[in-house]
Amino acid sequence: MSLTSIPRVTGVSSEEEAFNRLRARHYDMVIIMIGVDKESPLDMWQENKIQISLSSYLLLLNNPSDMAFVRSRKQ
User: Fold this and answer.
1) Adjacent-strand bridge partners of 31
2) Directed axis angle between helix 15-24 and helix 39-51, to 10°?
């Protein structure tokens, strides 16, 4: 990959903080983790796709059974 520096990781703890940071700066990738609450992260992801054009999204699941839920919500 010929990286000249190590990649940075920025963590946030709320949807509002995530959108504020995304509006203020460009990020190459956004990683969204789905946990107990499955609806909010997917809603946030859809909203983020509409508001801010990014090249890469990664949706992490902590339970393989959540795949069916994500597929049912896919648009």
Assistant:
1) 58
2) 20
Supply 2's token pair. Answer: 């010929």
For CA atoms 42, 45, 49, 54, give the dihedral sign. negative
The DSSP output letter for 5 is: S
- Write the pLDDT tens digit of every residue in 33-48: 887 777 777 777 777 6
Tell me which of 36 and 61 has the higher pLDDT: 61
- Taking alpha carbons only, the member of 57, 60, 62 closest to residue 46 is 57
Q: Among candidates 71, 15, 13, 9, which has minimal Cα distance to 48? A: 15
Q: Which residue has the higher pLDDT, 45 or 25?
A: 25
Burial class (CB in 10 A: 0-12, 13-18, 19+), 30: buried
Q: Give this prediction's pTM.
A: 0.67
